[in-house]
From TrEMBL:
NCBIfam families named in the record: 3a0107s02c
Record key words, sorted: Cell membrane, Membrane, Transmembrane, Transmembrane helix, Transport
Pfam family, one: BPD_transp_1
Source organism of the structure: Laceyella tengchongensis
Any one GO biological process: phosphate ion transmembrane transport
Lineage: superkingdom: Bacteria
ABC transmembrane type-1 domain location: 92-298
The protein, known as: Phosphate transport system permease protein PstA
Family assignment from sequence similarity: Belongs to the binding-protein-dependent transport system permease family. CysTW subfamily.
Length: 307
């Protein structure tokens, strides 16, 4: 009996020792994982901090140099070779005209194409090929779309250096982005909603109009406005279609010549006088305000339609 009790105590001691070793190994692994987690957290925070600091330095430099130039005269004067008389009125109105043309065309064509591809097109290699090419077009450099706009709208259709040619070129530029965003928003609508609508006797178009589009509208609107934010800051396509760097009037129709904020900023930066660099900084501030307003509108519309 004494031997059995001794063996039992020995086994118990061994089990306790093994459990202690196992707990120690587990604690060591947890410590290593926490260390790697803290290291990854630090690296990600450092990467974010670098981006934020660079942006803060750029914004500080821009506002320091350009804020004093953002005046009523700056907003109401046209471009001039004298820095004290130069303003951004022509370029600002040119950008407004461009967005007024690009926004409805992009929304109507982009959403229509997304509805067809997602709701009507038969699933097959042709549909897949179209979708892959649209996704690839979203990553094509903007200068390529500028050359396309120059060939089709300026030369073949003889629209010349007009607002319409610039607006159509920007429409081509952001159309693939809008189509992809709208397709993803439409695809996120649960099929149960479609089936319920069809079961109630609604037609396919009524289901799309009354069920699918209202559900997908927040994503569609967000993608469209962010794409327009990209379009308003583009320079290369507008240079290709002949946007003016010096314009002393605002466009009166879609067939008039035009300038745009990025073009005017680019022209001022290229000037040798320091005052023009400060004017360029002021133009960047105006452009940033427009971009932030558009992004804020996208957030507002998304939250409103989600409710």
């Amino acid at each position: 009996m004494a031997a059995e009790e001794l063996m039992s105590k020995h086994k118990t001691a061994l089990n306790h020792e093994r459990a202690f070793d196992e707990e120690r190994k587990i604690a060591s692994r947890v410590k290593q994982r926490r260390g790697r987690n803290r290291l990854a957290h630090g690296l990600f925070f450092l990467a974010t901090l670098v981006g934020v600091l660079v942006l803060a330095v750029l914004l500080f430099d821009i506002f320091q140099r350009g804020w004093s130039y953002v005046t009523a005269d700056f907003m109401n004067n046209f471009a001039s070779r004298f820095p004290s008389r130069a303003g951004i009125k022509g370029a600002l109105w040119g950008s407004i005209w461009l967005i007024a043309i690009t926004a409805p065309l992009t929304f109507i064509i982009g959403v229509g194409a997304a509805i067809y591809l997602e709701e009507y097109a038969k699933k097959g290699w042709i549909s897949t090929l179209i979708q892959v090419n649209i996704s690839n077009l979203a990553g094509v450099p903007s200068i390529v779309f500028g050359m396309l706009g120059l060939t089709i709208f300026v030369q073949i259709l003889a629209l010349k250096k007009s607002v319409l040619a610039g607006g159509l070129t920007l429409t081509l530029l952001i159309l693939p982005v809008v189509i992809v965003a709208a397709r993803e928003a439409i695809a996120s609508v649960p099929n149960s909603l479609r089936h319920a609508s069809l079961a109630m006797g609604a037609t396919r178009w009524q289901t799309i109009q009354k069920v699918v589009l209202p559900y997908a509208l927040p994503g569609i609107m967000t993608g469209t406005i962010l794409a327009l934010s990209r379009a308003i800051g583009e320079t290369a396509p507008l240079i290709m279609v002949g946007a003016a760097t010096f314009l002393a009037f605002t466009p009166g129709s879609v067939f008039d010549e035009f300038s745009a904020l990025p073009i005017q900023i680019y022209n001022w930066v290229a000037q040798p006088k320091e005052e023009f660099s400060n004017l360029a900084a002021a133009g960047i501030i105006v452009l940033l305000v427009i971009l932030l307003t558009m992004n804020g509108l996208a957030i507002f519309l998304r939250n409103k339609f989600q409710r």
